[in-house]
Specification:
This protein is an alpha/beta fold and about 325 residues long. The protein has helices at about 15-25, 55-60, 80-90, 125-140, 170-180, 200-210, 230-240, 250-255, 265-270, 280-285, 295-305, 315-330; strands at about 5-10, 30-35, 45-50, 65-70, 90-100, 145-155, 155, 185, 190-195, 195, 215-220, 225-230, 245-250, 335. It folds into 2 domains: about 5-155 and about 195-220, 3-Layer(aba) Sandwich (Rossmann fold); about 170-195 and about 225-270 and about 295-335, UDP-galactose 4-epimerase, domain 1 (Alpha-Beta Complex).
Length: about 325
């Protein structure tokens, strides 16, 4: 019998991949969102309109429904998690929440790779909020509300979004790379990073559905390949058929130039990010991250151009001014 699945969200980056993977498995798929994106649902998917921020309406929407598995892809706060408990306790066998590796915090363990047993010591607001989500849902699962599966994602990219560089997610840096202009990279460029294509991450979610070995468990869901930031810029620049020119500056210097713009660098990307997904691969054998960064970046850039969201770096005078400032201070330019 086909799995009956609900995706709360359903049209975002990873959600889109999950819906596609579930349909390929023959699942009956519904998505819950406000219906504002176009297209709001994939062909063959039922759209349930609503706003999860309105907890009473959210619960009433599902009071007569029951699903085999519910995926919450937009659970960002403890209040969101409480709303999901109110809506789905006793109405699904399995509840899968999309969490984040930021829950671990910036410390790198002696073994370098962070597994699911690492302590949760987030320093960012985002990380603390995700821990609160997990804890709220864990308490509900312990009381018998549903079987909980926690999936922690790292940097996930793909069609439907821009391509991250180390500091931004607006794509401007890659336009500079195409133009042969230098872009910033912090430290010596040897910080560790992982990048996982959304379709690879989606495999775990789709095939974890109704898999008892995933009940009551937490999983890191990332591609095994661990890159330095030098590697990352080199691979992504290859997808643009060029090389990246990098200006290596201290992270603290760059953050001081514009703390609001470089908040992601301050909270996340200046630190090592290297995680083990061995547990996820053991529990869900279908989960194998097979899409390489260069190929995935080519697909993402092609999608950005198709959607008309390629950003022109000529409009970013502030970045150019920072580049001139860095060069005047003696920071050099190197090829990735």
């Amino acid at each position: 019998m086909a799995i009956k699945a609900l995706v709360v969200g359903g049209t975002g980056l990873v959600s889109t991949g999950i819906v596609q993977q579930l349909l390929a498995r023959g699942a009956r798929v519904s998505v819950f969102n406000r219906g504002l994106r176009s297209p709001s649902v994939a062909e063959g998917v039922q759209l349930i309109r609503g706003d999860r921020a309105n907890a009473p309406d959210f619960a009433r929407t599902f009071e007569r429904e029951r699903f085999d598995v519910v995926y919450d892809m937009i659970c960002y706060t403890a209040e969101d998690a409480e709303a999901s408990v109110g809506a789905f306790a006793g109405r699904c066998e399995q509840f899968v929440v999309c969490s984040s590796a930021v829950v671990y915090g910036p410390k790198m363990p002696s073994g370098v790779l962070i597994d699911e047993q690492a302590p949760l010591e987030p320093t960012s607001h985002w990380g603390k909020s995700k821990v609160a989500c997990e804890q709220t849902l864990l308490r509900a699962a312990e009381s018998g509300a549903f079987n909980l599966t926690i999936a922690r994602l790292g940097h996930t990219y793909g069609p439907g979004d821009a391509m991250n560089d180390q500091q931004d997610n607006d794509g401007l840096a890659w336009d500079r790379v195409v133009r042969g202009l230098p872009v910033f990279c912090t430290g010596d460029g040897l910080g560790l990073w992982q990048a996982t294509h959304r379709d690879d991450a989606a495999k775990f979610f789709a095939f974890a559905a109704m898999a008892p070995q995933t009940y009551g468990q937490t999983f890191n869901v990332m591609r095994d390949e661990i890159l330095t930031w030098r590697d990352y810029y080199r691979e992504v620049a290859r997808a643009l058929d060029t090389q990246a020119k990098l200006i290596f500056v201290p992270a603290s210097w760059l953050i001081a130039q514009d703390s609001a713009r470089f908040s992601f660098l301050a909270e996340v990307s200046q630190f090592h990010a290297a995680y083990s997904s061995a547990k996820a691969k053991l529990a869900v054998p279908e989960f194998r991250a097979s899409i390489g960064l260069e190929a995935g970046a080519r697909e993402t850039f092609s999608d950005m151009r198709r959607r008309g969201v390629w950003n022109d770096s000529a409009s970013d005078a502030a970045y150019e001014e920072m580049v001139h400032r860095a060069l005047a201070l003696g920071f050099g330019v190197e090829l990735a």
